[in-house]
Amino acid sequence: MLIEQCAYGNRWRKVAPAAKGLFCLGGFIAAFAASQPAAAAAVAGLVVLITVLGAGVPFPRFVRVALPPLGFLLLGCLSLAYSLDFQGASNDFTVLWLPSGWAPIRQLAARSGAALAALLFLALTTPMIDLIALLRRLKMPEVLLEIMVLCYRMLFVFSEALHDTRTAQAARLGYATPRLALRSLGSLTANLTLQIWQRAHSLHIAAQSRNNDGAFRFLEPEYAHVRRDLTIAALGGALLIGLAVGMP
Amino acid sequence: MHIMEGFLPVKHAIGWGVAAAPFVAYGIYSVKKQIAANPEQRMLLGVAAAFSFVLSALKIPSVTGSCSHPTGTGLGALLFGPAAMAPVGAVVLLFQALLLAHGGLTTLGANIFSMAIVGPFAAYAVFKLARSLKASLAVSVFLAASLADLLTYVTTSVQLAMAFPDPLGGFMASFAKFAGIFAVTQIPLAISEGLLTVMIFNALARFNPKELQDMKLTDTAEVRA
Lengths: 248, 225
Hints:
The complex is a heterodimer of chains A (about 250) and B (about 220).
Chain A: H1 2-9, H2 17-33, H3 37-54, H4 59-81, E1 82-85, E2 94-97, H5 103-125, H6 128-137, H7 142-171, H8 178-209, H9 226-246
Antiparallel strand pairs in A: 1-2
Chain B: H1 10-37, H2 41-55, E1 60-61, E2 67-68, H3 73-80, H4 82-100, H5 108-132, H6 137-163, H7 170-207, H8 209-214, H9 220-224
Antiparallel strand pairs in B: 1-2
Helix pairs in contact in B: 1-4, 1-5, 2-4, 3-4, 3-5, 3-6, 4-5, 5-6, 6-7
């Protein structure tokens, strides 16, 4: 997973996660508060610039991560660009191109772009483990945190099992025709589904043998300059909001 | 397909979040009760969440040549009950937003509502209805999984149409547009997912009948057959 690699390998790995979260929140508020599409676009550009130059996420990698959501955005904007009218006489309906001009599309694209940039800033600089620790401090329900911790641990186990099984099936021509592919996928997913119980049971036994009585607790890393990081993030977030609201 | 980050206007984003919250809260309450009765459930739901995250990265071939990924909502609802799917689905959607940039944080509420609430409850209701009409296990599972898939995308289309009503035709025209785009990929996908889920259930019945019985979906005779 590309995002995961960047989250661990960027320059701001040691910055307090709370600060990064705060800056991301500032980005979201700025994206939605922007008065003009140009202001939202400026916010998006600034956040991308900070992610690439500040946190040192390689730009080509940033683009590769952003491409699928941008594809969704293109499709979404396209569906706003034309308009169906059923109101005409005798059941005929007309298709109109750009009934209200480019303005709503520009606004939507700029807002989504800015919000996406803010999300990617957080995702590309902060590993999931840090985010879970942050959510724990924000008093997220314990049940959800447990599911998140386990999900994150097992994710990689399952993707490896999936990859290995798929390779073995492909080596036996399991994906040669669409019919075979569906069959192979069926037995692959069925096999993985069975593993849910097996792996959960092993985890349960492992936890019990270590006297686990409920919650999973982990040591949290210490961050050296939490207060400084938070101050900088708050200033940065305020700058984004100011830019979004103030830009003529 | 998840609604991307920032796509919904702020009122809609908050509104869907508020609509999804009670279901997630009830789900957490019911999961807590399950864990108290059976501590092994604690691990089971986390592992199941990881499974469905990995499953969503799987491409299944569909009839029109396009590829799409299974949602797994139907399968999860049948295996773990619709209430537990709300918190599990919320975690999976959060992970997809943060690890794959698929979906988003501001649209999390809307996506939870369509994929982790409407889909699972629809699957469960369809399954129960089909079983009460004496349909076979395979037919019931197929109907539950594929209709859950379709209803999920109808919900997403409704969400998008409410946020972006057509300037001329209003809500209905807009709904037709979004549903039309989804229909191209989602109807074949729903059928593929239905077939896939039936295969999974067959394998479960063959290799792991104990778990299926524990879930009280089938009676013993059918599993043995």
